[in-house]
Amino acid sequence: MDKNILDILEERIQYALGLISEMQKKNLLLEQENSDLKTRLAEQGLELDQARQQFNEQNSRAEQEMLIKYRETEDRLRERVQNMLLKLDELKSFENR
């Protein structure tokens, strides 16, 4: 009977050791996966920062281009208005003759 108890205890210990070994393997795999995910997260963070920077640069360029076009349009309109005013002045002076 003592042998049976010792055999049962030994079997349970072997089983427990097997479970511990499996758990350690799973733990190593999870730690590696965690490390890989942290690396991917860091890389994606860098990519996101670069994308934001590119967006901001493009947005700034677009705003500059719009401002340049606005100023060009404003200059053309100013010139046209001035030309119209000159023509009106000419008409007024012609009428006054």
What does this protein look like?
The protein has about 100 residues and is an all-alpha fold. The chain is about 100% helix and about 0% strand. It has 1 helix and no strands. The radius of gyration is 41 Å and the shape is rod-shaped. It starts with a helix and ends with a helix. The model has no long low-confidence stretch (mean pLDDT about 95).
The assigned structural class equals mainly alpha
**Proportion in helices:** over 70%
Distance between the termini: 140 Å
Shape type: rod-shaped
Q: What Rg, in angstroms, do the CA atoms define?
A: 41 Å
Question: What is the helix tally?
Answer: 1
Mean pLDDT: 94
**Series of H and E elements:** H
Question: What descriptors fit this protein?
Answer:
98% helix, rod-shaped, 0% strand, 1 helix
Write the layout of secondary structure elements.
Layout (H helix, E strand, L loop, with lengths): L1 H95 L1
Quick recap of the structure?
This protein is mostly helical.
